[in-house]
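Aim 2, interim progress: modelling of the DAU-bound target.
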Amino acid sequence: MKKTILVTGGAGFIGSHVVRRFVTNYPDYLIVNLDNLTYAGNLNNLKDVEAAPNYKFVKEDICDFKSMESLFGKYSFDGVIHLAAESHVDRSIKNPLAFIETNILGTVSLLSAAKSSWKDFDGKRFYHISTDEVYGSLGEEGFFTETTSYDPQSPYSASKASSDHFVRAYSNTYGIPVVLSNCSNNYGPFQFPEKLIPLMINNIRNNKPLPVYGKGENVRDWLYVEDHARAIDLIYHQGKVDETYNIGGFNEWKNIDIVNLLCDLLDKKLNRPPGTSSKLITYVTDRAGHDHRYAIDASKIKNELGWEPSLQFEEGLNKTIDWYLENEQWLQEVTSGDYQSYYQEHYKTEA
Ligand code: NAD
Ligand code: DAU
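Predicted structure of the complex, ligand included:
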């Protein structure tokens, strides 16, 4: 094998697309997927590549420093692509400590394992996958650039901001070669249905209320997950050490407009009369401290690495809806167990 790469969080939503892309496109790399399979991790996301000779799964917790150190010793990783995290803002409002533990302590544990195991840093790379939420919330105008000051507003984004700072501190203090990217909202197959788009698809399909926070006027910039995985591939291979790249979809939408669009698309696909699903829209109590708008200026990655999103939003949404409609069993599996109690408690309604 030419290279051995550690991907953390590879059984999650974005991680599974990254693992699939690397295992398929780089047969001469060994891809080690490290994941402790929380409620959000699911090995069924990787069924199509699990038997590949260049793929290995390891069930470990990134917070366990001793295990991380021995894993680095065993595999002599050339690089790390670090995605493992607690990723849902609503859960961070309910239980911030879990986010501090995984996102901050877990990242520092991995950085420390790299520091103590890598004898020299030649050709090595620690790539941290982060979020645009570290920059805070925008008004109606403006975009986040790579030099926008950090201003995280939720426990989730504060934990991601802190982990970004630790990644840069390990570069500055110990010389670990790092690279970071901060991406906007992803959507696509295998996303856990606690996040806006898959939650709405699932509820429309099951004729359940569609809980829109506040007035539905918050704005997010949406990117198809495979476009993010392609950006990660480019940055891992061609991004400059110590640099940060913002990744976005040039695709801003108000939440309520997305929910209405999903209703229209699903009415057609499910042969329901026009206007049926939008009757399910229910305005609910707003998220505490709800960031108003995120928007990414992704011109650096475009100009330096030639990356641009490839899918139009409606095309991506159609692919996503079709995937969820065709993968009912996956949805049933991930919505059994913890999901029902989370849902009932969070939305204070019938699951
Ligand atoms: P996800 O919640 O779907 O997956 C996270 C994965 O990490 C899961 O497989 C989980 O089992 C694993 N994990 C959690 N704690 C772990 C631990 N202690 N040890 C080992 N594995 C652990 O998340 P996602 O949406 O795929 O996000 C992946 C990364 O990308 C995160 O770092 C997130 O902050 C970042 N990000 C996400 C988005 C988005 O829109 N989803 C956008 C920008 C950045
Ligand atoms: O911007 C990148 C971030 O995008 C990532 O770092 C996070 O990991 C990811 O979860 C996502 O965060 P958001 O909070 O923006 O995503 P979420 O899907 O939870 O919510 C999107 C918008 O939809 C947000 O304004 C809240 C709103 N919403 C969400 C849910 C779950 C609702 O109105 N109703 C809902 O039921």
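The pocket of nicotinamide-adenine-dinucleotide (ligand 1) is lined by residues 8-9, 11-15, 35-38, 40-41, 61-63, 83-85, 87, 102, 106, 129, 131, 160, 183, 185-186, 192 (CB under 6 Å). The chain has a mean pLDDT of 97.
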